[in-house]
Amino acid sequence: MRSRFLRVQKVHPDFYIEYKNPSLNPYFYEIDVCPSCGFAAADTFSPGFPPGTKAVIEQQFQQWNKQDFNKERTSDEAIRALKLGVLSAVLKKEKHVVIAGLCLRLAWIYRLEDREEEEIRFLHQALNHYQLSYEQADFVSTQMSEMRILYLIGELARRVGNIDEAIRYFSRVIQHKNKAFEQKLVEMAREQWYIIRSQEETVASQ
C-alpha cells in the first residue's frame, strides 16, 4: 500500500490511526501468511527460530487448508491473518512486545468494526503482554521505548476499566527520568490522567 494515498482522520490515545478512507487501511496488511503452510509473520518477528519451535509449528498447522491472503483483504480476512500472526508468534516464542502489538492491532480492527466486546478482549491481551514485556524488559533494543510502553500500559488499563492501574502507569510516565526527551508522551499521559480525575470527581458529586 502506497503511503501517499493514506490520509489520517484521527489518532486515538492508544495510537490507533483512523484513516479518512477506511478501505485503505495498512493494518489489514501487516501480516504475511504462507498460503501453503499457514504460518504467518510480521516485520517485527525475529529472523530465527528457537530450538524445537519449527516442529511445534508444523504440528499446529498440519491440518491447514491452503488459503490465499495475497490479495485485497476485507476486515474479516485481516482479522484472520492477525490471529494467525498471534498464534504463530506464540508458537515461535516471539517477544511479548511483539505479541502485544499484534493483539493491539486486532483490537483496533474490531474498533473499526464497532465490535466492542472483541475489542476489549484483545485490549486485555495486549495489556497483559505489554506488562510482561515491561517486567521482563524484552522491549529493550526494539523501537519501543520505556516511556512509550509505560504509557501504553496506562492507556490500555484505562480502556479496560483498570483505573487505579492506569493512574499508576500514567504517573510513572509523568515522573520519568527521560521525560524531557519524550514530552509528547508526558503531555498525553497528563491529559489522560486529568480525564480520569475529572470523571471521578463527576461521579463523586452525583
From TrEMBL:
The keyword Heme does not apply. Keywords: TPR repeat. The keyword Translocase does not apply. It holds the Pfam family DUF2225. SMART domains: TPR (SM00028). PROSITE patterns: TPR. TPR repeats lie at residues 147-180. This is DUF2225 domain-containing protein. The lineage of its organism: Bacteria, Bacillati, Bacillota, Bacilli, Bacillales.
